[in-house]
């Protein structure tokens, strides 16, 4: 069994302020005896002003949030999944990078968001993540607390093959740190998360951003932890705070035994003239 916590926060435009908020929440959760804590996408910074991310983001060795949270992992003796930080990789581009940190403050692994949120939602809401971020090209399964964790970020959630590949590579927990918009969250958040859990027989942990942010955007919140049968174990809806749950890892194999679809080897051939 592993005890996990998901942090829900409302990141703003000041990196130092965001570090203070998330550090306080991490300390509170750690005092409840958890083994592993996950934070949302863009933990350190949400600022949609043109060029703001590139001005404020740093290279990995100079990132203030990363160094502070690595120290905090040691202080609190917990594993941390930093949902994501904007990491500068060139003058004109960042990567949206998630970090898995050990209780010794070591970077166990990192994952760069593969799927860019380039969408037009209507009503004046459009997003072009690829203007600022370079997509990653590798899926990542890494060990925390002796448990294989599949690392993803937000919009990745809409691509089920990624999660099936992570599960087949050994993942028992799927991490989905996010900053879903209120519009898309109301329509799809719970359905997609439960589907990924059911399809893979994995636990899903989904820490999220919530509310109306300093830069004017509105995110959906509803951080959840879901079991391999697709049931919501715990959820925080609209507040800044955290949730926690005990994950009994034997449930992963039990769910996959009951519904062995993950390992199906059936091949299909499409035909436009079948009927």
Protein described:
By secondary structure, the protein is an alpha/beta fold. Helix content is 26%, strand content 30%. It contains six helices and 16 strands. Strands 5-4-3-2-1-16 form a six-stranded mixed sheet. A hairpin with a 2-residue loop joins strand 8 and strand 9. Helix 1 packs parallel to helix 3. The protein starts with a strand and ends in a 17-residue tail after the last helix. The mean pLDDT is 95.
Question: What is the topological layout?
Answer:
Blueprint: E1 2-8, H1 15-30, E2 36-38, H2 52-56, H3 64-76, E3 79-88, E4 94-101, E5 107-112, E6 118-122, E7 125-128, E8 140-144, E9 147-151, H4 160-168, E10 173-175, H5 182-200, E11 203-206, E12 210-212, E13 218-220, E14 223-226, E15 232-236, E16 241-247, H6 250-258
Parallel strand pairs: 1-2, 2-3, 9-10, 10-11
Antiparallel strand pairs: 1-16, 3-4, 4-5, 6-7, 8-9, 11-14, 12-13, 14-15
Key attributes of the depicted protein:
six-stranded mixed β-sheet, globular, alpha/beta, 275 residues, 6 helices
Brief write-up:
26% of the residues lie in helices and 30% in strands.
Radius of gyration: 18 Å
Category by helix and strand content: alpha/beta
Which range best describes the helical content: under 10%, 10-25%, 25-40%, 40-55%, 55-70% or over 70%? 25-40%
Widest sheet: strand ordering = 5-4-3-2-1-16
Largest sheet: 6 strands, mixed
Helix-strand string: EHEHHEEEEEEEHEHEEEEEEH
Shape: globular
Instruction: State the distance separating the first and last CA atoms.
Output: 50 Å
DSSP summary: helix tally = 6
How big a fraction of the residues is strand? 25-35%
The residue ranges in which pLDDT falls below 50 over 5 or more consecutive positions are none
Number of strands: 16
Question: Mean pLDDT, rounded to whole units?
Answer: 95
